[in-house]
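A reminder from the course coordinator: this example appears on the midterm review sheet, so study it carefully.

Given structure:
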């Protein structure tokens, strides 16, 4: 990353309060730019081309399409995107 380039982040979680928490966290750092959010894996797959994130923070347990399913599709279609899997389950 160059000094002026921000890391483009997309947050994917079915709980709005979790997305808001990550948004507040990311805003505390100058090197991150929140480019978008999605409330489930299906939405994440649809919005990934539009948002062009560098990194996705992906919840693993969501309705419509799980995080694991969404990761498989996104990695196939957008192999340059890095994905951090998030879960509160062991």
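Designed residues:
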């Amino acid at each position: 990353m160059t000094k002026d380039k921000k890391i483009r982040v997309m947050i994917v979680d079915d709980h709005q309060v979790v997305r808001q928490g990550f948004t507040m966290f990311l805003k505390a750092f100058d090197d991150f730019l929140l480019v978008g959010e999605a409330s489930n894996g299906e939405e994440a797959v649809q919005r990934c081309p539009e948002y062009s994130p560098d990194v996705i923070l992906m919840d693993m347990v969501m309705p419509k399409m799980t995080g694991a399913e969404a990761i498989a599709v996104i990695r196939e279609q957008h192999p340059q995107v890095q994905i951090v899997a998030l879960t509160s389950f062991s």
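The chain is about 40% helix and 25% strand. The beta strands are 7-12, 32-38, 55-59, 82-86.
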